[in-house]
Description:
Layout: H1 14-48, E1 69-80, E2 84-90, E3 96-102, E4 106-115, E5 123-127, E6 134-140, E7 143-150, E8 156-160
Antiparallel strand pairs: 1-4, 1-6, 2-3, 2-5, 5-8, 6-7
Amino acid sequence: MGVPTATRPASPSPRDCAGRARSAGSFVVVLGVLAAAFAVTAYVVPRSAREPGQKEAAGAPVAPASVRTVSHQVVYELTGTHGARNVTYAAEGSALTQRTEVTTPWSVVFTRVGPAGRTEFYSVAARNPGPGELRCRIVVDGVVVADKTVAEPGRQFSCAV
C-alpha cells in the first residue's frame, strides 16, 4: 500500500491572484508617483537654474491690433399650440441659456457682437410636449437662417446655424 501524494492544482489559487493584483496595483501607484515627480522636476529645474539677478530679454512693446467688430440682431422663435419644454439656446456672447418650460408663441431677441468675418453659431433646441406641431426659427439681421417643424409629441429637436 502506497502513500497518496499531494498534487498541485493546475491553476493558481484565488489567494495567489489577489496577491498579484495587489502587487500590480502597487506597481501602478509607484509609476504614477514617479511620473508626477518627473513632471514637477522638469517644470521647476529649468526656471530655478537662472541666476536670481538675470532677467528675460525685453522685446519691443506690442501695440494691440485694432479689430473691427460687427453686431448682429438675433431672434429665436418657437410657435405651437402646447408650448415647449427643455428650451436651450446660445444667447448673447454665446452663453448657453435654458428654460424648463415656455408658452408659445415665444421669442427672445438679443444682439451678438464679435470680430468681423468670424462665423457665428446660433442654436435653439426644444422638446415638443404635443400633440400638434412645434416650430422653431432663427432670424439674424432680419433674414431667416433656420426654420424647422416637428409634430411628434415628446420629441427633442433643434434649429442651428
